[in-house]
């Protein structure tokens, strides 16, 4: 066998891995609490904490409990919360009109959290799927999701959410033109400082199942969402979608789901140099939790490694249901 120094020509790459201090010195990416966005689920009532079977460790929270969760998040250093609604069926209809009621649970929760914890950021989704009786993100007419009528409702919902105290509007519906229309409406209503994080590249993924259980739409969905979400096979289309949303006024862009689409994260960051985020969706969370519960993986280490992967792929932050646990781990370490 040849001498190793002759083989490597003096380039021994293990030199900087030999000790913790040297590994820290050359670490290329780092996860911090500032990278974490915490999605939470809301439910009607008081003092309600409803465990979600498909998402171990995650519960739906009544508004008062969501306020307590926001206080905990603030204490942990988490700077941004994203609330999602579980809406009673009797309040759902074909157009999702309850999203425009000024007493809906999203608006009440935003106002309550902002009043109790004014320092924390709030990001709301103006998509209609929690509010429609068919589970789609838009108005359903004769089996078709009607784009322009949907955008009109999204625009009005976004203004209401901003007025309630939302700091970022983040529409997840993937309707054409909604970013520009929302930007125009926010500016016209005196909300020019409200940012928009676009779900610029939301894919027609199989990873959303537990989320749909969490918001109560899993048994409602008629058909699928392939006519408005991106085909998982397409990467160039994702670039065009992001480019369009940026042109319309998006301040930040998001990739959803996260881990199966790290290549998209990297392409978006390299192409646009925009603040880029990923959503580690419910299916990703639940798979890690299930494997950990069975002893197949070290759940804590896989949790942390999965989030570091987003940073390596170019993300500036991650929406993750692990956020409080990660923040606690980071504080300890």
UniProtKB/TrEMBL annotation:
Record bears the keyword Lyase: yes
Tagged with keyword Lyase: yes
GO molecular function, one term: porphobilinogen synthase activity
Enzyme Commission no: 4.2.1.24
Signal peptide limits: none
The protein's enzyme class: lyase
Reactions this protein catalyses: 2 5-aminolevulinate = porphobilinogen + 2 H2O + H(+)
Keywords: Heme biosynthesis, Lyase, Porphyrin biosynthesis
Pathway this chain belongs to: Porphyrin-containing compound metabolism; protoporphyrin-IX biosynthesis; coproporphyrinogen-III from 5-aminolevulinate: step 1/4
Subunit structure: Homooctamer.
Family note: Belongs to the ALAD family.
NCBIfam families in the cross-refs: PRK09283.1
Name this polypeptide is given: Delta-aminolevulinic acid dehydratase
Source species of the chain: Ahrensia kielensis
Gene: hemB
